[in-house]
Amino acid sequence: MNLFNQNNTYNYELEKLCRIFLPFEKIIFTEQPTESDVYAHTRLTKSDSRTQLYSFLKFYTQTAEFVDFVENDAEDYYKECERVLAIQLFKCFVAVTGYVSPWGILTGVRPAKLYSALCKKGGKNYARSFFKEKFLVSDKKIELCEKTYEREGEITSQSEKDSFSLYVSIPFCPTRCSYCSFVSHSVEMAKKLIPEYLEKLIDEIVITAQIARTNNLKLRSVYIGGGTPTTLSAEQLERLMKVISENFDIEGKEYTVEAGRPDTITEEKLRVIKENGATRISINPQTMNDEVLNVIGRKHTSDDTVNAFLLARKLGFDNINMDLIAGLPSDTFESFCGTVERVTALKPDSVTVHSLALKRASNLNSENIPRFESGVTASKMVDFAYDFLSQHGITPYYMYRQSKTVGNNENVGYATAFKESFYNVYIMDETHTILACGASAVTKLRQPGGSYIERIFNYKYPYEYINNFNEILSRKDRITAFYDEYRI
Questions:
Q1: Residues 170, 140: contact at Cβ < 8 Å?
Q2: CATH of the domain at 183
Q3: Beta-carbon neighbour count of residue 369 at 10 Å?
Q4: What does the pLDDT look like over 17-44, one tens digit per residue?
Q5: Residue 119 and residue 85: Cα distance in Å, rounded?
Q6: What global pTM score does this model have?
């Protein structure tokens, strides 16, 4: 679509607003009216006392337009003009498509964090009113924010000024899922890189532990993610996990390993994971519909998921998460409901429901791209998951959102009592420092007692990580310098 923003500089926010309805369409900013099948025009006209705001949308054969005014002396005038234009454009899209996003014009990654800030400013009633009236958020999503805000608060309160969590990246998978945009390589393509990658990763972990001790940082949680960590052999997993336990005090700490793909799980690997300190694993079916699994490039069946889960239970794992995705290609509302019901019957300790988000790097991005209509179905899916899981005692505890998500929906972690993932809350809330190791890992340094965040990026791809390892280590010098500057 073409987007012409006249007399305003709100390109970023208005582009995100358009992506609520057209998440995968290219949006072209024009410097003059340039019509196309989908074309939008926003305009600010400022007079002595007030500013006229105008928005127009052409959507194929349909059109819509709105006019509003903002007083020039309005509080946060610039932000208020931006908000009103976003509402106008939102209403234009609703008028021509009939689809009402339950999140209204809210496009941020961390709505619960914003809700928390509003609660601190004016209380829950103020926060609810702000979300509903200013952002047009539905009552159900406000309720979700409130529930996750309350449970997140219980977890974040346990973090201290010098707390940190450790993230370790294993960017390899047995095959690449069609929706995936993560930096992960199929084993067939990158198997030869794994031994050298593991050697470098172990070196980085040891050095990171030394840095943590130097700065008197206190470990709160460990997360080995990917990719699929169980792509490694049992021997490789054991070596990696022994290095972590030898260099970090993991006693009594939450320790998650993403077992992920059921086709990578064996009894030997599960025993290694359990014997080396992991307290939590994730077994991720994404869907329990075998036809959908085939469409997205998964090489396992729903029965494989069930068998892997039951094996983990047999070996004594008492904190198992399962990931699902709403809005997968060829999945239907009825099929998704069946997935939620079948997974719930296994009695997992937590379930994470993701909404399909397609990035440029995903294979699906160039295939059958969903339009806004698919958002209606995806919204019904996530609403069903919220209701059904909550009824079975698996309730929301953390939430985040991504761009280019079908239906502008959210990703929600649900858990039974005392089975929440502390790491998930810490990383999403940016509660404390995350020291990250491995390809594509991002260390996030949080100022002790403050809110300033600084990031240190590792190279993305395994071959870059290996070839530039000395540079990665030199960047880690910034951690100590950061704490020298900002420690209270």
A1: no
A2: 3.80.30.20
A3: 15
A4: 998 888 878 899 999 999 899 999 999 9
A5: 25
A6: 0.92
